[in-house]
Amino acid sequence: MPEGAAFSHLTAAVIHAFPLRTARIPADRPLDVTTYADSARRRRVGVTVHPLPRDERRVIVDRLHVTPPVDTWCALSAVLTVDELVEIGDHLMRRQSPDATLDQLHEAVRRYAGRHGAKRLRQAAELVRARTDSRRETWLRLVLHRAGLPEPEINVSVRDAEGRHIKLGDLVYERERVLVEYDGEQHRTDSMQYHKDTRDLERAVAAGWAVIRVGRLDRDERAIVRRVRSALHRRA
């Protein structure tokens, strides 16, 4: 690796463990390297070299020089869709151990103005939300958003009539007492977690909440929207 170079774009996204869609990371994809040294920008087999402004930072992850998480997110706007950028933006502001704040993302978007993908990046930044737990939760939220449904709260406390905490709800409509849950992979791989979640949802129903569960086999987005809209209308 030449002086001043760093892994970037999709290669950096893999190193940072971003929630990329599987199709984005084929095994034979070239490595992405960013550098400000003109002498290092010649063509290399298996490597795509990108220009790097001298004022951009690098970080070290597992002894590798990498563009920082927020800068990597910005660079990905050249190759990812708006929805994919929202999923990664949500990941950067995840509920546990976030990498960035919304102000930091918006500041990065301003710095990125005029570059390839800047328009998609601005659109994604308006849809990014904090406190998420998974890429599929973000996907589900965007499905409801694009259908024109009200925006739910994300990972907030679901409580009974006496105000006692039952669980953190994925997508919560508190006024209507509608809870939309995405059943993730832990429901297949962690029997104890599955048991706890099932009991918590039973308590929520007993406390008067309408619970809508969406799983990985629920691929008909219109059907998901109909279920949520119907529950909201019944509770309105």
Overview of the molecule:
The protein is an alpha/beta fold and 236 residues long. It has two domains: 125 residues, no CATH class; 100 residues. 39% of the residues lie in helices and 19% in strands. It is built from nine helices and nine strands. The strands form three sheets. It has a four-stranded mixed beta sheet with strand order 6-7-8-9. Strands 1-2-3 form a three-stranded mixed beta sheet. A hairpin with a 4-residue loop joins strand 7 and strand 8. Helix 1 crosses helix 2 and helix 3 crosses helix 6. The radius of gyration is 21 Å and the shape is elongated. The model has no long low-confidence stretch (mean pLDDT 92).
Keywords:
single chain, 236 residues, alpha/beta, 2 domains, three-stranded mixed sheet, 9 strands, 19% strand, elongated
- The helix tally amounts to 9
Q: What's the rounded overall pLDDT mean? A: 92
Rg for CA atoms: 21 Å
Oligomer: single chain
Proportion of residues in extended strands:
15-25%
Q: How many domains would you count in the coordinates?
A: 2
Name the overall outline: elongated
Helix/strand order, N-terminal first: EHEEEEHHHHHEEEHHEH
Structural category is: alpha/beta
Distance between the termini: 60 Å
Q: Count the strands?
A: 9
